[in-house]
Amino acid sequence: MPLEWAGSSPDLLLVIDRESHEPLRSQVERGLREAIRAGRLCGGERLPSSRALAHGLGLSRGLVQECYAQLQAEGYLVPRVGSGTRVAVHTPVRQPPAERPARLVLEFGNVSEDALTAGVAAVGDLLGGDGRGPHGRHVGRV
Fold first, then answer.
1. Whose CA is closest to 36, among 99, 97, 94, 114?
2. 77 with 111, same domain?
3. Which residues does the UniProt record annotate as the domain HTH gntR-type (predicted)?
4. How confident is the prediction for the chain on average, in pLDDT?
5. Which of 30, 90, 96, 102 is 20 to 30 A from 117 (CA-CA)?
6. How far apart, in whole angstroms, are the C-alpha atoms of residue 140 and residue 120?
């Protein structure tokens, strides 16, 4: 059964599922990220101390400190000496991932060197006709 904990802010609610295959650290990081992105935690808002959060969730303080450090590195949190850890005023906005272009997978198997060279040269012609790829590098050299 998941453990729920509300911190110093009534809107901070983290759900930790110890039976999940997702590591506890990932669950805490994801929960805090989602709270920030959803606006449940606002810029400048103080988070519970690592000790208090760890105690409330039944986790080690080191694990919570690692989560805070990761979110600081990502720009979600900022440490303030004597004032604890706070949500960054300008949190990163993540764009949805762009669609990945289709990948061309070729299996050459037992292809002769001449056929391979001809195929690479044909690709070079498609890329620009002058044997140069999109970055000015020669294509078709084997």
1. 94
2. no
3. 22-90
4. 77
5. 102
6. 5
